[in-house]
Amino acid sequence: MPYFDNAATSFPKPEEVYREVEKYLRVYGANPGRSGHKMALQAGRVIFETRELLAKLFHIDDPMQVIFTSNATAALNLAIKGYLKRGDHVLLTSMEHNSVIRPIKALENMGVEHTIVTCAKDGALNPEDMEKALKSNSKMIISTHASNVTGTLMPVQEIGTISQKNHLAFLLDASQTAGVYDLDVNAMNIDMMAFPGHKSLLGPQGTGGLYIRKGLELCEMIQGGTGSKSDRIVQPEMMPDRYESGTLNTPGIAGLGAGIKFILRQGMDEIRHHESDLTNYLLEKLAEIKKVDVYGPMNTLKQAPVVSLNIRGMDSSEVAYELDSKYDIAVRPGLHCAPLAHETIGTLEQGTVRFSIGYFNTKENVDQAVNALYSICRG
Amino acid sequence: MPYFDNAATSFPKPEEVYREVEKYLRVYGANPGRSGHKMALQAGRVIFETRELLAKLFHIDDPMQVIFTSNATAALNLAIKGYLKRGDHVLLTSMEHNSVIRPIKALENMGVEHTIVTCAKDGALNPEDMEKALKSNSKMIISTHASNVTGTLMPVQEIGTISQKNHLAFLLDASQTAGVYDLDVNAMNIDMMAFPGHKSLLGPQGTGGLYIRKGLELCEMIQGGTGSKSDRIVQPEMMPDRYESGTLNTPGIAGLGAGIKFILRQGMDEIRHHESDLTNYLLEKLAEIKKVDVYGPMNTLKQAPVVSLNIRGMDSSEVAYELDSKYDIAVRPGLHCAPLAHETIGTLEQGTVRFSIGYFNTKENVDQAVNALYSICRG
């Protein structure tokens, strides 16, 4: 089955990810950071190793500034609600996912203001528009690195500069790019960065995390057992324990570590070039199909490997259903949990058919998809 | 290695749990509830099947009232913070884990009052003490089903009755009992019940959940993509989506389903009797070692399979270290993230050495442990 739903979760994972999850479950198996026996220590080492690998990948000085969450949504919620206070103002782009917009809407009722900066029809953000929307009580800028609808890459460097110049916290949602695009939290002035473990980082579902710049204090959302300062009935303030209450998804984190090792071995550039080449090829082929409308930049220099399209006169769900049932091709139709992005690109009514490409996709997969689209267009 | 740390996480898991996690990762792999292609639908079915199995196990009428969380701590935080409001009063026992006490302490700053009802030295709660502590603004009672330090079983039925009579919400922390003790949310008047997936339910780490009685509305802690009502920028109110934003730990939930099927096949009574018999045997043997102090009821009718002890004159960490390094026996020393419980039983200084028994422990394991303790006592 050609799988083009990598923006939801990557599939397949590298063989070593499966093996590492199984090894963890069968061999180490214990609870890290609690008991101190051999198995628990081994589990703790697995966690720490993955933290180190993430720090290496994102150029983070201290691995303890990376905390594990169950997914990027949990990380974004923690960053947003842990940082913003009543009376604050926050800026975000109109291409954000509901995992940013819904928490921001929830904070509205608690006196946190926001401005949604509208992007162009291809999803591009003009950094000047962001700067113009600043207010005296602005405290934070939130941007996705790449839209999950159109793949549009955001001007992260420019946003980082604006944010630094104006003493704001910059929260990057790296859901569609972590593992494929180079992310350097210092060079890009990123203060917090949320990432899923199960997309381009190639780990299992149930993993994700948040980088928090040293010195930045968030109000933790969850308190509980941390295995540290067990004599205290208030949450400890040390990193990363403060934000990691309860038993972590250790088998998942073990698998995530294996995914990152795979990335480092293959080389992120090689992975990105492969995905980008296939995206280019898909875009070229799509341009030849008359009834197909493609959204976004249609240019892999400006776009992560995500392509949204529609067949004129057909509902996106109908197209996806045919791709799945007749051609065994997995894509995602609809609104992709990003209604404002669809408003921006003009597809709030019908949604889009989204092809999201991963490292294990092949040119043959793209050919199969294009041929299937031709057939569907012919009806 | 005799593994006696099952109260932290059960080990090993049944063979079918390993296999189901691997099968999910290798074969279904997709994101449930989002895309609608075959793999995504299969993933959705896995999630729903586990929800149904949990509903069956806990006598819950509608599986949609079970929501998945990353662990019991996240479930407890959601139940506590989602339900209690400024001006409310909540009652809890002195045997609660920090996953209850720390959120309650955090709410104190937000104007939520609490009373900690002190238990007896063996951890037992007198339900009358709970009733006496009620106030006109009391809104909730929280109790663990069994202490994670002493195993002491709490009078759940009586607490349920008090709670119903006084129109309070009853939140049960079933961390140490779900999967071993019969839990009937209706018969026991339980309004919310938090459970880990990776302890006696025999699933992988990274799983847990919360039962929420129908009609009970919690303020959700996390907003984000739910795959439902994607056109809306506010969180949908439908169950279980409202409380399950972001990608779930689907491989973990698949494994959890396999764990529950194992329990249903073996029979929960058979599992409980096995664990209880071993606990009894351990308690009998411990009573013969002069230098060993055992805490808790020392009676398996009143105690889940958790035994805390100390060797007089030795620190609990020292004993655990010897058990691990010389005898390859895994236990947990220290305060077990429950400082008030240790205050209650008088071990706040030295902690305890905790033996927690699981279904895969054997009589030989107990003999090994007892022999090791004899040797350590002899120095």
UniProtKB/TrEMBL annotation, chains A, B:
Annotated keywords: Pyridoxal phosphate, Transferase
Cofactor entry: pyridoxal 5'-phosphate
GO biological process: cysteine metabolic process
GO-annotated molecular function: cysteine desulfurase activity; pyridoxal phosphate binding
Pfam families, A to Z: Aminotran_5 (PF00266)
UniProt domain Aminotransferase class V: residue ranges: 3-368
Keyword Transferase: yes
Catalytic reactions on record: (sulfur carrier)-H + L-cysteine = (sulfur carrier)-SH + L-alanine
EC number: 2.8.1.7
NCBIfam families per the UniProt record, alphabetical: am_tr_V_EF2568
Entry similarity comment: Belongs to the class-V pyridoxal-phosphate-dependent aminotransferase family. Csd subfamily.
Protein name in UniProt: cysteine desulfurase
